[in-house]
């Protein structure tokens, strides 16, 4: 009887594996034959040949944007030029280790920002920074890591910029975060109160710069970005002491993200922990809001289990359905109502307050593939692929009715879709 039960179990397991294999092959064949995906990949690669500006509406080089398209760029552009563009960021590193958002050729500086930066070692460029955000250092670390991984050019770490090697500058930037943007009580880094991953503060005021209206807080996006950057640094260094330092810091950070920001009961991340009061009325329940972008980056950082990923995906899909948004690129839901926001801040479903951003939706697609939820990823990526073809390009974000908005030729969108397609194809080749 016992042998009979064992053989029955083995037979059922074999049938299940056969069925799964058959389904995988069917999906793999569909992916490899997908003409829309192939066309979007071709369009993305063509866009990468146009340089490093974030998009047609942004004639600057941004670290947070470059981080999301540098891998595709390394396949389509002169790697020596990419290297020089990465090194340029370090000319504008501040005396405390702080890194900027980016830079622009001096002759292209036309927007009249009073808060700009100059460098004696890069006189032909102007630097800039949206100070409400805390992802500049971590974005550049990740971009450097991806460049090295793609090109094998580890020599960039020893390259001296203004008398200091790049790797030492990366370490210096982490020290800035720990000295200037760190809440010891929580063991997490801080920033101004923004919409999820965004760089627009909810109080309005100076909008992208810290001012007297700013409420300092902690969110999952900034800290997940740091966790990824620490893992990257551990991979980049050959110094065992440094490697252990980065790994220990990352482990502690991931534990604190779960301890303070993950709402186990609701299977979602808390939008903000406030260090000195909230900017919102007492009767406003901010924790009803789901942060889609920060959640995707937290999955990349390894914060969530597979079951938790499935739970947040269910939330995201339901939020897209309830909002009527075009895709899983929906930034957050429900949106912040206008009556709790400051002046000059986006209305519901505008820009970062519930706009639909492929730039982050594509990252969620990537994480679904990595976590073996390929069928779900393939279904959910279709609206993002189709609108690239329909609108003949990559737009920064989309309105609730699907109308494209913001910068055209937005390389961040092209980069995340291009990487998603690469991951789809890799999986399909392994399962065909």
Automatic annotation (TrEMBL):
Identify the stretch annotated as signal peptide in this record.
1-24
> Which Gene3D superfamilies did the record assign?
1.50.10.10
One example of the protein's molecular function in GO is: glycosyltransferase activity
Q: Could you tell me the superkingdom of the organism this chain comes from?
A: Bacteria
Q: Name one GO biological process term.
A: carbohydrate metabolic process
For this protein, the record's SUPFAM superfamilies field holds: Six-hairpin glycosidases
Any idea which UniProt keywords this protein has?
Glycosyltransferase, Signal, Transferase
Matching InterPro entries, A to Z?
Answer: 6-hairpin_glycosidase_sf, 6hp_glycosidase-like_sf, GH94_catalytic
Q: Name a Pfam family for this protein.
A: Glyco_hydro_94
**Glycosyl hydrolase 94 catalytic domain: residues covered:** 75-320
What name goes with this protein? Answer: Glycosyl hydrolase 94 catalytic domain-containing protein
